[in-house]
Design a protein that fits this description.
This protein has a 4-stranded antiparallel beta sheet, covered by helices on one side. The protein is 51% helix and 15% strand.
């Protein structure tokens, strides 16, 4: 076992840390309050190669491994989880899915500009009645000559109004259930494609979350990903990798909150000494550090398995389940350590606590992760 990072991995980690401190931290509170999409920051992340990290260089990406990707995700998430989820979706769900399962024409037309950060992508699976139950797709795609006609609604779509390209999961053959599902590449501006109101969210408020409405949207057959009926498998394979990204986001939120709490405990005094000298606070920090380290190892193991070409369904699910719980627990304790200041926006920890909750919900709830884990271990 080798727990050392390569020189390249350390360099990209440092680059992400510097970017987060110098370009994400300024204005992060204001963006959260105003629910302002971080347009300038996303542009810079594209220029730095963060939006196509795992995409091969021939398709405009950085050609990096998954370990490098999760290191970047952690550093960005320490400061601004709204920006990191944009990185996660574009990398894990959009670029990876297109490179792995798209044809050459789709890669040339869509993947290259997505990986370069010239355009932004969105992944559209969830519906009003199909969140955790991804098999119950009500959005339909019916064949019509050289096109499919898409009708339906998608909910809670990250990058909903800011994306240029949308990967949309639909039902074509209801009688075949999940084997009748297809995935399509839909472009913003296609007739009948409407963007619904922006969601008013608890956390990751800078992230652009919308419902999407499809009214007789005509999509060329060449925009279908894979063979007829491949859509459900496409969604599940893509989400398995996406869970690693969200696990890394949760890890970063926890790490950021812990670092703020530790620093605060060294300067805040009570009863004549810094509060870190009180066992009640010191033990909180000990628990937080231990849990974060455990989460980090789970996340890195899942990333390593993905890089080795191994099956990472189980490790990814465990990483997301545990890291998201650690994010929730750690941010709550960070607020507690800050006392009254923890309830004030300028100290950042209240925002991190609000951001943490979504990591237990999107890209598969914690309950879904337990289903994945239990099935995997019972098959062993």
């Amino acid at each position: 076992m080798d727990f050392k990072f390569t020189e390249e991995q350390l360099l990209i980690q440092e680059a992400a840390r510097d970017f987060a401190k110098t370009e994400l931290l300024p204005g992060v509170i204001e963006r959260d309050e105003k629910q302002e999409f971080p347009k300038a920051q996303v542009k810079r992340m594209g220029e730095l190669g963060f939006l196509g990290m795992m995409t091969s260089e021939q398709y405009g990406g950085s050609g990096m491994d998954t370990v490098s990707y999760v290191l970047v995700m952690e550093e960005l998430s320490k400061v601004d989880a709204s920006c990191s989820v944009i990185v996660s979706v574009n990398n894990s769900l959009v670029c990876w899915g297109l490179e792995k399962f798209g044809n050459e024409e789709q890669k040339q037309k869509y993947l290259i500009p997505l990986a370069k950060g010239e355009i932004l992508g969105a992944f559209c699976l969830s519906e009003p009645e199909a969140g955790s139950d991804a098999t119950s797709q009500k959005t339909t795609a019916i064949e019509d000559g050289d096109h499919y006609i898409i009708n339906g609604t998608k909910n809670w779509i990250t990058n909903g109004a800011s994306a240029d390209v949308y990967l949309v999961i639909t039902q074509t053959h209801p009688e075949l259930k999940h084997k009748g599902i297809n995935a399509f590449i839909v472009e913003k501006g296609m007739p009948g494609f409407e963007i619904g109101p922006k969601e008013h969210k608890l956390g990751i408020r800078g992230s652009d979350t919308h419902s999407l409405i499809f009214n007789d949207v005509r999509v060329p057959k060449e925009n279908r990903i894979g063979e007829d009926g491949f859509g459900f498998k496409f969604a599940m394979k893509t989400l398995a990798g996406g869970r690693i990204g969200i696990a890394a986001q949760a890890l970063g939120i926890a790490s950021g909150a812990y670092e703020l709490a530790k620093a605060y405990s060294k300067v805040r005094k009570s009863f004549g000494t810094e509060i870190c000298n009180h066992q009640a606070i010191a033990f909180k920090l000990a628990d937080m550090h231990t849990q974060i380290e455990a989460a980090r190892h789970l996340v890195l193991k899942a990333a390593w398995e993905k890089d080795q070409g191994q099956n990472y369904d189980l490790s990814g699910a465990m990483a997301k389940l545990y890291a998201s719980q650690v994010a929730m627990d750690t941010t709550i304790e960070a607020v507690q350590i800050h006392g009254g200041n923890g309830y004030v926006k300028e100290y950042h920890v209240e925002r991190l606590m609000r951001d943490a909750k979504i990591t237990q919900i999107y890209e598969g709830t914690s309950e879904i992760q337990k289903i994945v884990i239990s099935r995997a271990i019972l098959e062993q």
